[in-house]
Design brief:
three-stranded antiparallel beta sheet; binds flavin-adenine dinucleotide
Length: 242
């Protein structure tokens, strides 16, 4: 998967995800993957739904006050027209990509974030994922954090089943660790998404933007730097709790 998130003047931003899967456009596994995938696909037809095939996902984001008040009621072609109109000065390659978007795949989405919560009394009901720590996509770690929750909670439940820990103590231990790493991710994700960043300010904005573009271009051309940036993302995404 390739991902590109650009913050643009005027407080707008765009994310492009290039999703590549191990099977071809007809739903057949590509040659490069193992035979067990064929078995999996044959036994789980749901896996052949459109979003399991190669696709490009485009997200256009900005502050609600900069959008039509009825944005959440808009659908399909209306949303596509809005995107095309709001990006008339963008690079022609990006605009070409926007022009081939299937209007039926467009939908509006409210981006929300949460605030760090003080620990609550533990019961046998707990929460994982966005249900407890919705975050902006600033660092692209919401789903990664949900999976980390699931793995950690699963370990605690298995330990409780095996008599190594009392059930509520296990859940408490999960919640304690989760509150720490998840709200850290929430806060880091938000810091990259607010319209208060220097590049959106009137006078220093163009300078900050030029500086960011230059550093991005340098990172893109220096493999060691590129690896370092990729590692910094992996640091947040690949954490283990053992
Ligand atoms: C534009 C964008 C880009 C993102 N990019 C990334 C990224 O690159 N990397 C990353 O890690 N994360 C990313 N995320 C975040 C990621 O999508 C979420 O953090 C993740 O989907 C949360 O998973 P979840 O299972 O907790 O919740 P969800 O994916 O929201 O799943 C909850 C499910 O419960 C269902 N549901 C709700 N109410 C009910 C009900 N009453 N009964 C039955 N079902 C119900 C919903 O329909 C939904 O299917 C991105 C988010 C956005 C918006």
């Amino acid at each position: 998967m390739g991902c590109r998130w650009s913050s643009l003047p005027g407080g707008t931003s765009c994310i492009v995800h290039v999703m590549e899967f191990g099977w071809d456009e007809n739903g057949k596994p590509k040659n490069t993957i193992g035979g067990s995938d064929a078995e999996l696909l044959a036994g789980w037809p749901g896996l052949q739904w459109d979003n399991t095939r190669d696709y490009v996902m485009v997200g256009f984001g900005t502050a609600a006050r900069l959008l039509p008040t009825n944005i959440m009621q808009m659908r399909g072609q209306e949303l596509k027209d809005l995107l095309v109109a709001r990006t008339s000065s963008w690079h022609p390659h990006l605009r070409e990509l926007f022009s081939v978007i299937d209007p039926g795949s467009c939908f509006p989405l409210n981006m929300r974030t949460t605030e760090r919560l003080p620990q609550w009394p533990t019961t046998n009901v707990t929460l994982i994922g966005d249900a407890i720590h919705t975050m902006t996509p600033g660092r692209g770690v919401g789903a990664n954090t949900a999976l980390r929750d699931a793995r950690l909670l699963c370990r605690m439940l298995v330990a409780a089943r095996d008599g190594e820990v009392k059930l509520l103590d296990g859940i408490r231990s999960y919640e304690t660790k989760m509150i720490d790493y998840a709200f850290d991710a929430v806060e880091k994700s938000l810091s990259g998404m607010t319209v208060d960043q220097p590049m959106f300010k009137p006078v220093i904005g163009p300078l900050a933007m030029a500086g960011m573009r230059t550093s991005m271009r340098v990172i893109n051309r220096v493999p060691a730097l590129k690896r370092k940036v990729a590692r910094s993302y992996a640091d947040v995404r690949d954490q283990d709790d053992d």
